[in-house]
Amino acid sequence: MKTVALLLFTLTAFAQQVKTTPPVKTTATQAAPAGTKSALDKATLEAYLRYVELWLPAVEVKIDDAKPAPELPGFFNVWVHLIYKGSAKEQQYYVSQDGKKILRGDVFEINKSPFQPNLDKLKVDQQPGYGGPVNAPVTMVVFTDFQCPYCKEEAQILRGNLAKSFPDKVRVYFMDFPLDQIHNWARTAAIAGRCVYKQSPAAFWDYFDWAYENQQAIGMDNFSSKFQIFASEKKLDGMSLGRCVENKTSEPDVNREVAEGHTLEVSATPTIFMNGRKLENMLPWATLEQLINIELDHHANVAQAAADDACCTVTIPKIVK
Fold first, then answer.
1. What's the order of all strands across the beta sheet hosting 277-280?
2. Hey, which of 173, 297, 301, 310 has its CA 20 to 30 A from 5?
């Protein structure tokens, strides 16, 4: 579900809707003398980008120091951080070494995944997972919110179809991303889920299914009592779980997941990263199935290419004296 206040990547679209196009003037007095401006000057770069990107005045801009971009020789890598109403977004730019040119976009390396930057940020070693083995050809990392109705629908789609259609091909990892601005018990549910996971990793998926199945009946006023009924039915230590939730013992885990989501520019739930490819909002099974098959075909092609290369490599034996 889209958050109401976010988001930076909608600011441009909003500004495009409300702006009026100023008259174009080409008088000599408006043009700055050649060579007097440099994008390596942060104030100059910010002013230029504010005009290009149509960032609202309320958007706070912070610019990192320029660093050499090994992926793009002759350019510096500059990260720009945007802050708006408590939400944040990062945007990468490339500035030529003479400060005269700015490039915006992604640089792809043909021998690496086009989604490698996302893969480098996704940390799943502490996350609940189900499905295929950890080395399955397709990995799905799902950022979700227990109070989000679209997340419930997506969760039931995945739980109902993956095991039947791709029993050993897809591994799914869960990430908490409670939308605190619009969901009053989502964070409590996330904390409770991490408490269950710490007590019994296997029971987490019982909790996962229970929370979504009972979503309409759960509220902030009755969460604790219903959570205790769940713990009793699953023969978990309800007293220990209750203390864990009350003391917010597992909230640092939730905060870590949310922070990871922010580095990946997650702003809506559910958001899925399929082998690093970002997929926002609820997707029907027919679409997910097609995307999974695309990933499997790609994986097979890469594996075949590697095998073909290996078969053509000649190793010269060394003489051992």
1. 129-131, 170-176, 138-144, 271-274, 277-280
2. 173
* Neighbour-count burial of 133, counting CB atoms closer than 10 A to its CB (0-12 exposed, 13-18 middle, 19+ buried): exposed
pLDDT of residue 28: 33
Q: What is the rounded CA–CA span in Å between residue 270 and residue 141?
A: 10
CB atoms within 10 A of CB 295: 19
Amino acid identity at 268: A
CB-based contact 173:144 (threshold 8 Å): no
Residues 22-45 as b/e (b if ≥16 CB within 10 A, e otherwise) read eeeeeeeeeeeeeeeeebbebeeb
For the chain, list residues with pLDDT below 70. 1-36, 306, 308-321
Q: Give 294-321 pLDDT, tens digit per residue.
A: 999 988 988 777 676 666 655 566 565 5
Q: What is the pLDDT of residues 45-84, one digit of tens each?
A: 999 999 888 898 899 999 999 999 988 999 999 999 998 8
Phi/psi for 148 (5° steps) reads -85, 120
* CA 3 centroid distance within chain: 15
Q: Which helix (H) or strand (E) segment is 129 a member of? A: strand 129-131
Question: Domains in the chain, please, with CATH?
Answer: 8-15+37-104 (no CATH), 116-299 (3.40.30.10)
**Residue 23's pLDDT is what?**
34
Q: Distance of CA 60 to CAs 47, 87, 91, 92, Å?
A: 12, 10, 13, 16
Q: Rounded to an integer, what distance in angstroms lies between the CA atom of residue 302 and that of residue 11?
A: 39
Give the list of residues 6+ apart from residue 169 with CB closer than 8 angstroms, or none. 132, 136, 137, 138, 292, 296
Amino acid at 164: K
